[in-house]
Amino acid sequence: MELLALRTFEAVVDEGGILAASRKLNTVQSNVTARIRRLEEELGTELFFRSGRGVELAPAGRVLLDYARRMLNLERQTVAAVRQAGDEAGELRIGSMETFAALYLPPALSELRATHPALELRVRADTSATLVDHVLAHKLDCAFVAGPVVHPALQFDELVVEELVQVFAPGTDPVLSPLILFREGCAYRARAIALQRALGHAQADAMEFGTLEGILGCVSVGLGWTLMPRRIVAQSAHARRLEMRAVPAEIGLVPTGMVSRRSDAPPRALATLANLIRTQATAH
Fold first, then answer.
1. Percentage helix, strand, coil, to 5, in the chain?
2. Distance of CA 151 to the CA centre of its chain
């Protein structure tokens, strides 16, 4: 079983079809189709159900996907480990909540590049729930998420305890205003809804935005209120038009840290990155 075939199979699954996979792999459709067909012949089973232009995983394909991701991840680890024997090199795939990325990642990644100049960094921002799923699926080497994260296959290393505050525009009453939140999967979302209920807010509806500045910008003009790390609000361009109010500790104090797979031998760069962020958080 060739790694190229497994990489092609993974691309078809992730991109949702042959054409999209061929674009991602920078090859023609016929090559992708041929690799999948050879893989099916080698395994003696159908991996996809074809429907129009799209594909859907067959039961055998779902089984293969888990093993394929593990094998491809092992290949990446092997390459990185061999390179680390000489020069620290390879690819590091990092996930982060948008708020954590805004506060901590830029200076930490800058120092990481200075100490590991040959390291290729890939960063993805998403909700905590999605990032944890990507770590489990071997799509990310680590992710910085809101905790606690309890899973037998994962390790969660707490780096900082973030303080969330209620944020609203001066002169507005949050009790009478809707929530403004990140989409489903955001760790702060559940806490904001819990606070809304605990405080007896009259408004039960919520507006969803995909960006940090979009949320704070709408809050600053009185469209609603949100729950956000105190440091994020203080550093925002909208800070002068926002008020912050402390919330109960069980809602406001959020352990935040790095999640990775227990089964992996972590690259040394991961420990370096975690230490850089821990040091930076302590300094503040």
1. 50, 25, 25
2. 16
35-61 confidence digits (pLDDT tens) = 988 988 899 998 988 776 678 888 998
* C-alpha pair distances (Å), 114 with each of 117, 147, 242, 269, 278: 6, 29, 37, 12, 18
Task: Please provide residue 236's backbone torsions phi and psi, each rounded to the nearest 5 degrees.
Answer: -70, 150
> From the centroid of its chain, how far is CA 262?
18
Q: Higher model confidence: residue 214 or residue 82? A: 214
> Which H or E element spans position 142?
strand 142-146
3-78 with 162-253: one CATH topology? Answer: no
Provide DSSP, 173-241.
Answer: -GGGS-EEEPPTT-HHHHHHHHHHHHTT-S---EEE-SSHHHHHHHHHTTS-BEEEEHHHHHHSTTGGG
Q: What class, spelled out in words, does domain 3-78 have in CATH?
A: mainly alpha
Residue 121 CB burial class (10 angstroms; 0-12, 13-18, ≥19): middle
| Entry pTM | 0.68
C-alpha 257/C-alpha 264 separation (Å) is 18
Name the residue ranges covered by the structural domains of the chain.
3-78, 87-160+254-283, 162-253
Q: Is the pLDDT of residue 159 over 80?
A: yes
- Provide the 8-state DSSP code for 145: E
- Just give the CATH number of 87-160+254-283: 3.40.190.10
